[in-house]
Amino acid sequence: MFGRLILAAAVASAATAGFAAPERGLKAVPTSFEPIKQACGERDGWSDPAPPSHVFGNVYMVGTCGITSLLITTPKGHFLIDGATDEAAEGIAENIRKLGFDPKDVRYLLATHEHLDHAGGLAKLKQITGAKFATREAARLGMESGLPLADDPQHGIHPAFPGVKADVIIGDEQTLRIGKQTITAIATPGHSPGGTSYTWKSCEGKICRQIVYADSLNAVSADAYRFSDHPDYVATLRRSMARIEAIKNCEIMISPHPFQSEFFERLAGEKPLVDPARCRTYVAAARKRLDDRLIKEAGN
After folding, report:
1. CB under 8 Å to 118, separation ≥6 — which residues?
2. Which of 36, 129, 208, 254 satisfies CB 3.0 to 4.6 Å to 53 for a cystine?
């Protein structure tokens, strides 16, 4: 039966397991996994294996110590956002299994942007899951070729990753749906031309939270690239920052690199998971890095 869970062990209740009961039709997943912050320690490599972790409601972290990959579950199939590296793909699939879910029940693969560290594992994950890959047109060529294109500030930095063919092209503010779960894409180019953020609502019982998976906003580039030589691109990046900053219901914000949003500390309870100011503070830090970069370029 589609959506069937393979339970790793029996427990008396979801509360005992530390997981809140998800949407009707899905059973709570028992876990005795080591906390992700403790398991990773100082390791933050893109392919460093990490245990899976519950985030909120039907949302789970299944990525690596250095890269976020999010599983959003429903009784009718699942979303998976970001695939880390090609080397990490099997581990992501295994994390899904450890939670008691079947990777073949993933119906949509999504990605924040067309760089090796977030899209490198998508081709293999597509093979494992049989899911459709959905992306914005601005990211399609980079995703399918496995290389950042010439207008990407990071063009030439990374080796090619296995390209992944797009099955669905999604537009800005377009919504994808599986059952009752919807996810909305937000175009946030700048870190890459095809940068995309996502937002959706997840619930635990009667408590619902708006979750924002905000794409990277960092002004990172190849050594020869000068942002000050590309004012239109800088303006695009600033508009993306403003879009994330303006999200009104940014209750749980997550970033593609966990350290960017203190994600592991928040999962560990050391900092609040629910933080309505997180989108604004995330953007403020990115805006300062961009301003510092432009000042540095002006002095050279």
Report:
1. 67, 82, 83, 84, 111, 112, 256
2. 36
